[in-house]
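Continuing from the previous page...

OK, I double-checked the sequence for RNA polymerase sigma-70 factor against my notes and this is the correct one:
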Amino acid sequence: MMNIKTEPGFQQVYFQYYAALFNTAYKILNNRQVAEDVVQEVFLKLWEIRHKLRISSSLRSYLTRAVLNTSLNHLKKNKRLVHLEDVSQNNSAQNSDDPELRVTYNEIDNKLNQIISTLPPKCQLVFTLSRFEGMSNQEIADHMGITKKTVENQLNKALSKLREHLRPYTKLLTDLAILILSTLFSYIAWV
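Thanks. Re-ran it with the corrected sequence; updated structure tokens here:
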């Protein structure tokens, strides 16, 4: 491993890995400026912690994982991940006068986001692009440079995990759906 603790060693790592890391970030973010910012952020963090850093895998693997995580965090922060929040701005459950409905909605929304955040980065990205960005399996495959079958496998893995972890919330989800529908029907009847 190169000595990243010295400035010349760090510069060597930067020039050796920058292009590959940028490409990784760009595949996820699809925005040149943001991808550059993400890679710069990863290198800045690396420089700041260089004296304490102990890498058990290869440096390339470590940096690639850091770029993946930082890119996904960027998507989350900028609410691209949670298209659900755009929808929920107008959602009668979240904005309801019924405190029970709001609490139920928030509990399920928090649990859903918690489960999604535990998925492996590639699986999380595929699920996010499919469910929150509305991309087709083929569009995701083209965007990420993977096969459509891989996209399907990653989606199945994500949905399986969601089903497993949301099973205890089945009654809560049913109650929430009933409350939302009754609110919707009340609104329709009023109009």
